[in-house]
Amino acid sequence: MRPRLLALTLLAAQAASLPAQSPPASLTYLANMGVLLDCGGRRVVIDGLHRGALAEYAAVPPALLAALEQARPPVARLDLALSTHRHHDHFDAASVAARLGADSGTRYLAATETVDSLYARTALAAAHPRVLGVDPPAGGEKRLTVARLELSVLHLPHNPTPSPRVANVGFLLDCAGLRILHVGDADPTAANYDPHRLASRPVDIAIVPFWYLTGADDTVRRSIGARLWVASHIPLADTAAVRRQVLNRVPGAVVLARPGEEYALRVGR
Predict the structure, then answer these.
(1) Which of 182, 191, 216, 261 could make an S-S bridge to 207, C-beta 3.0–4.6 Å?
(2) What strand order describes the sheet that includes 25-31?
(3) What are the structural domains of the chain?
(4) Of 54, 95, 79, 13, which is closest to residue 263 (Cα–Cα)?
């Protein structure tokens, strides 16, 4: 039987709340949709290697960003870095290249379009041995094992934008007995999600833009079927209002608002 998620709690509660048979796991909020996951000792960053190019959204605190880019404590080791798409509030080519240069153990995975941007904007040699571009088929996914971590890269098109859409992918990651979904800026429509049959897989934690959780229409939420929702991509000027809206619509959700906060992933059988 798969673990049943109980909650995310600030790490001050300590990982002693985890059953002895479960490896310790945690989530650290970096900024915007950026998170650092510790999956029983394997460390993964999703959408966290960026430099706060859009002022309306949170930036990674300078000391933490320096640690991420320069492979210094508390992020001296990083197994895998992922980017959902190439928008600058999720990805910065120089930031990714800095990490790859500072840490020979980090691997990087993103859509091929994002990887092409990485090569075009930095001096990183094309076809870098630790960089992987992945393009899942329309409505489909690619399952991979990278850095001894099991993950699926999901085709999840970006929200409509005035300019041409970028290639957005989602990540479904097995993390210390939990299945964690990160969707980037995926368009919140059932047509995007139904082909993946996420509600039947099942998803333990879904990290989504806050607007997935504030609307009255719960069609997409039912398509994902997460046991715990984590709201992100919150404008700095509207944090308090967004928190109220999210918790009013989805009680028990976690709202990521303070970069650097670390949460224990508490699970039970």
Answers:
(1) 182
(2) 4-10, 262-268, 25-31, 34-39, 42-46, 80-83, 107-110, 131-133
(3) 22-268 (3.60.15.10)
(4) 13
Residue (of 68, 73, 70, 61) closest to 36 by Cα position: 68
The structure's pTM equals 0.92
Q: How many helices (H) and strands (E) does the chain have?
A: 6, 15
Are the C-beta atoms of residues 204 and 1 closer than 8 Å to each other? no
Q: How far apart are CA 149 and CA 106, in angstroms?
A: 13
How big is the CA angle at 187 (ends 189 and 131), to the nearest 5 degrees?
Answer: 130
Separation in Å, CA 211 to CA 90, 159, 199, 232, 246: 17, 11, 19, 9, 8
For residue range 189-227, what is the model confidence (pLDDT) as tens digits?
999 999 999 999 999 999 999 999 998 889 999 999 999
